[in-house]
Design brief:
Blueprint: H1 2-8, H2 17-26, H3 32-43, E1 50-51, E2 62-64, E3 69-74, H4 93-116, E4 120-125, H5 126-131, H6 133-145
Parallel strand pairs: 3-4
Antiparallel strand pairs: 1-2, 2-3
The protein binds zinc ion.
Length: about 150
């Protein structure tokens, strides 16, 4: 059964409710953590950013093109968060490991491409954002102030 999924590249149907909820919540571009970050920036009066700026390498979630500052806001599950080390779902674990490792490799490539192009970029993790929103906003501010 898993071979079928591997062939067409679609995600296996999650059996456990938590994975299913995570997947449906995080599938869209306008994700929870991203909205949270934007709300936090607005609260600080920080504006002028573009979302998913196409002209920047890797299409960062939040970008200030003139200042070449980019922010990626990553959901812990999909991007293999180094802080919470959540394991891949047990069902179809090989598929998941491959999928999530590919996501991680893509994230790293995007950062490299941006930096090569003279951008300063920061990755904000969902769990860190929830734990300390002002701290994460401060990381972005430091880049904007430079
Ligand atoms: Zn995390």
């Amino acid at each position: 059964m898993s071979k079928v999924y591997l062939r067409d590249g679609r995600a296996p149907i999650p059996k456990d409710a938590r994975t299913s909820a995570t997947m449906s919540r995080i599938r869209s571009r306008n994700t929870g953590p991203e909205r949270m970050m934007r709300a936090a920036l607005s609260a600080e009066g920080i504006r002028g950013y573009r979302l998913n700026w196409k002209k920047a390498p890797g299409r960062p979630d939040i970008a200030w093109p003139k200042r070449k500052v980019a922010v990626f806001v990553h959901g812990c599950f999909w991007h293999l968060c180094p802080h919470c080390q959540r394991n891949a779902p047990k069902r179809n674990s090989m598929w998941w490991k491959k999928k999530l490792a590919a996501n991680q490799a893509r994230d790293q490539r995007k950062l490299r491409e941006l930096r090569k192009d003279g951008w300063r970029a920061v990755t904000v993790w969902e769990c860190q954002l929830k734990k300390d929103t002002p701290g994460q906003v401060a990381r972005v501010l430091r880049l904007l102030d430079q």
